[in-house]
Design goal:
Number of strands: 8
Largest sheet: 8 strands, antiparallel
Structural class: alpha+beta
Radius of gyration: 34 Å
Helix content: 25-40%
Shape: flat
Length: 312
């Protein structure tokens, strides 16, 4: 079973911080991972109970303890006292056997047994004292440095970040691959290759006159004799294309994610440079009283006395 992947894009004080990608354990905790995945995509829309979007987007990290964990997912009250699952207010625990034995684990936050809703936390170190109390349903596979940066942001007495840490965007990453070439095209290509090889072999040999006559007779027979019509089964196998797309391998999937992440970072860098340029130009215009001097070349000093002498 292919494990699902989701992502969070974080901002700190309205400035982009980076992307965190999760791998979900949908093979061992299907109900918990489906709740998290749908809250990442927001496909359920507005909750009929709370009238809030069932969506992590624009929610905050409301608790951060350095060298322990960061916690978020409260999109109803934004302070750790709210939250809602796609199944209602809360749902039962699932797979409590997986230990919290490493950093970068994605776990459900709760208020006791069978009280899971939408709140989650990401570990910054092994937490064996929480084994059997919280469901581990995923892990961070990219962007753990972003999680560590969030944990270093100053907090108040209740471990709430003093600077807003917001999930500005989130969603699901899906496997994708263009459909494979139809079977008929592959067979025609292989037939062309084999015919080319046979031609090159025949040209390299020097056949005798008897062989040439024999070949001419065979060719004339083939022309006059009707070609056998293929059976219905053969036609369907040759003409029917392979409609099912070939899925990506894990290596291709990781390479695509890395390429998309680099493109996203480059696009954000260009936007930031453009913003800085516009800000600098505006400040320059204000200092010069709204007048901007544009030109090319060196400034030349003219002595007024010398210029007057030349006139007379």
């Amino acid at each position: 079973m292919v494990r699902q992947r989701t992502f969070f894009d974080f901002t700190v004080d309205n400035q982009p911080l980076g992307r965190v990608i999760f791998e979900l354990y949908n093979d061992t905790a299907p109900k918990t991972t489906e709740n998290f995945r749908i809250l990442c995509t927001g496909e359920r829309g507005i909750s009929p109970a709370s009238q809030h979007p069932l969506y992590y987007k624009n929610s905050t990290i409301h608790r951060s303890i350095q060298d322990f964990m960061i916690q978020g997912g409260d999109f109803t009250k934004f302070n750790g006292s709210g939250g809602e699952s796609i199944y209602g207010s809360s749902f039962a625990d699932e797979d409590l056997e997986r230990p919290l034995d490493a950093e970068a684990l994605l776990c459900m936050a709760n208020k006791g047994p069978d009280t899971n809703n939408s709140q989650f936390f990401i570990t910054l170190r092994p937490c064996p004292h929480l084994n059997g109390k919280h469901v581990v349903f995923g892990r961070v596979i990219r962007g753990f440095d972003i999680v560590q940066k969030i944990s270093t942001i100053p907090v108040d007495a209740k471990s709430r970040p003093l600077t807003p840490v917001v999930i500005s965007n989130c969603g699901e990453l899906e496997l994708r691959k263009p459909p494979a070439q139809p079977l008929a095209e592959e067979q025609s290509k292989s037939e062309k290759r084999s015919s080319r090889r046979s031609r090159s072999r025949s040209e390299s040999r020097s056949p005798s006159p008897e062989r040439r006559r024999h070949r001419k007779k065979k060719k004339s027979k083939r022309k006059h004799s009707p070609s056998p019509s293929p059976s219905h089964g053969e036609e369907t196998t040759k003409s029917k294309p392979d409609d099912e797309p070939r899925k990506e391998t894990e290596e291709e999937y990781d390479a695509r994610l890395e390429r998309e992440e680099k493109e996203r970072i480059e696009e954000a860098r260009k936007k930031e440079l453009q913003r800085i340029k516009e800000k600098y130009e505006n400040e320059l215009a204000e200092k010069s009283g709204g007048v901007r001097f544009k030109g090319r070349g060196r400034m030349k000093y003219l002595d007024p006395e010398l210029s007057n002498r030349d006139r007379y």
